[in-house]
Predict the 3D structure of the following.
Amino acid sequence: MSEVIEFAEFKRVEMKVGKVLEVVRHPGADKLYIVQIDVGGERPLQTVTSLVPHYSEAELLGSQVVVLTNLKPTRMRGERSECMLLCAETPDESQSVLLQPRVPMAPGTPIV
């Protein structure tokens, strides 16, 4: 079983609707994309995501996604990753499904 956290700790997670603006294959990794996402801020956020086996660039481009926006930025394979796309994934990682709004929403709309 996973570690149990208090609801107050969970409430610190900031999730927003984002729109995928750009998707490029990571030049140094077979399974990674570098993705630019509009989350309603001054500039797009960049993430590095392992969705190559599950989604084509064309499927991701222009799509609305749920984004975890208040993570501490990190580097993945030399690229800055400032946020995280939320997905449901099987334990063996053979399937991954992006969490997406059912209806169109403006980038930056908070998910509560």
Summary: Residues 19 and 64 are 5 Å apart (CA to CA).
